[in-house]
Amino acid sequence: MPLEWLEINGIPLSVLHDVSRVPATPGNVMLAQSAMSDRIRLGLSDFQKILVIRCFEDGDPIAEDLEIAITSPNWHKDGTQLPDVQFVDVSTVDQFVDAIESFHGAVLIFDGHGTRDKETGVGSIVIGGNAIDVWELKHRVSMPPIVLLSACDTLPVDGSHGSSAVGMLALGAVTVLCTMLPVRSRRSATFIARLIYRIAKFLPIVTRGRDLGVDWRYLMSGMLRMSYATELMDQFERDFGTGFLAQVRVKTNMDINSREEKWLTNLFRRLSSIIKKPVRDIHAWFDDRMEMADSLKYVQLGRPELILIYEVSPLEASNARKEDSKNNGV
Fold first, then answer.
1. Same domain, 33 and 147
2. Of 18, 184, 269, 322, which is the most buried if we count CB atoms within 10 A?
3. How many Å from the N-terminal Cα to the C-terminal Cα in the chain?
4. Cβ–Cβ under 8 Å, residues 126 and 164
C-alpha cells in the first residue's frame, strides 16, 4: 500500500499531513534525491508563465478539457490576474524536447494520456500515439523544477520504478506531481485549473512578509486537501440532496489554508449540523460511502520541500540592491 493511503483513525495520511516521497529505485535517482540539499529559491515572477505541453491525437474527446477548465470565467470573477498559460501541442518527441528547452519558467504541465505496460509495469506518457521512455531523453532535455503530470498511471501503484514520473526527476525536476491510478479527465483538468488559481491568488498572500519563504509541498498539500474536501462534499450533496454547502466549502478552505489541524473534524461537525444528525452518523456515512477520491491518486514525488517561494526571490532582491547602489553612486 502507498504510504499516502495509510490510515490514521480511518483517514488517509496524505489528507491529514503534508506528504511527499523519494522514489525507491535500484538506480541512482533515489541516492541523488536523498542527498539533495540545495534549496531552489523562486519568486512570484517565476510563476508568471506556465507551460502546458499537450499531446493528443486528432478527435480525442478530452483534448480540450484542460484548456476549457483553465479559461473558465469562474477564475476571473474576482479580478485575479492568472499566470500566462502557454499551450504547446506536440506530436513528436523532438517537439516535446524543443518546447521544454525554450521555456524558462518554474512550472511544466504535461496534458495527455498515460499508459502502463502490462509486462514491465512501467507507466509512460504517450506522445504521437506512442508510449515514450523519458529516460532516453537524459542528455537532451532539462526539466523545470516543478512538473505536473495531468495523465493516468504516471507512477502506477502496482508498476515499475522506471515510470515516467521517476524519469522526470532523472531529467532534472525537483518535484513531480504524478498519478498512481487512472484519473478522470474533467476532474483532473479542474484540479490543475484550481491549482493555477491558487498560485495566482494564494501565493501572493502567503509569501507576503515571510523572510523564510513558503515551500511548494505546503502549497500543493493544501491544494490536495481542498480537492479531497470538495469530492467529499460533492458526495454528501448527492446522497442527502442538500444544496446549502457554499458557506461550508468556504469555511473548510479557510481552515485548510490556515493550517487548522482539525479542519476535517470541523467539516464533519458542519455537515452534521446541516442535516441535523449526530457527528457519529456523518462518520458512519463517510466510512460507507466515501469512494476513492481522485485527489488520493496523486503523489508528490521528489523533494518539494526544497522549493522555497518568496514574494521577491533572493536573486531578484540582490539584483535590485545592486541596481540601487549603482544608481546612487555607492
1. yes
2. 18
3. 61
4. no
Q: Which residues contact 52 (CB under 8 A, 6 or more apart)?
A: 66, 67, 85, 86, 87, 88, 109, 111
Q: 214-245: buried (b, 16+ CB within 10 Å) or exposed (e) per residue?
A: bbbbebbbbbbbbbbbbbbbebbeeeeeeeeb
Which helix (H) or strand (E) segment is 224 a member of? helix 216-240
Looking up residue 113, the CATH number of its domain turns out to be 3.40.50
Tell me, yes or no, whether 213 lies in a domain. no
Cα 135 from Cα 86, distance rounded (Å): 25
Q: Are residues 275 and 302 in the same domain?
A: no
Residue 20 placed within a domain: yes
pLDDT score at 78: 83
The answer to whether residues 244 and 303 belong to one domain is no
Residues 161 and 228 in one domain: no
Per-residue pLDDT, 263: 96
Q: Is 328 a domain residue?
A: no
Are 248 and 307 in the same domain?
no
Domains: count for the chain:
2
- For residue 330, what pLDDT is reported? 54
Predicted local distance difference test score (pLDDT) of residue 36: 81
Please report how many Cα atoms fall inside a 13 Å half-sphere around the Cα of residue 241, on the Cβ side.
0
pLDDT given at position 104: 92
Instruction: Give the closest residue to 20 by CA, choosing from 136, 173, 162, 198.
Output: 173
Give the per-residue pLDDT at 121. Answer: 77
Owning domain of residue 78: 3-206+298-312
Task: Give the per-residue pLDDT at 10.
Answer: 85
Please list the ranges in the chain whose pLDDT falls under 50: none
pTM of the model: 0.91
Return d(Cα 171, Cα 149) in angstroms, integer.
14
Q: Computed from CA positions of residues 224, 229, 230, 234, in that sequence, does the dihedral angle turn out positive or negative? A: positive
Length, in residues, of the chain: 330
In a domain, 152, yes or no: yes
**How many whole angstroms separate alpha carbon 163 and alpha carbon 116?**
9
CB 83 within 8 A of CB 202: no
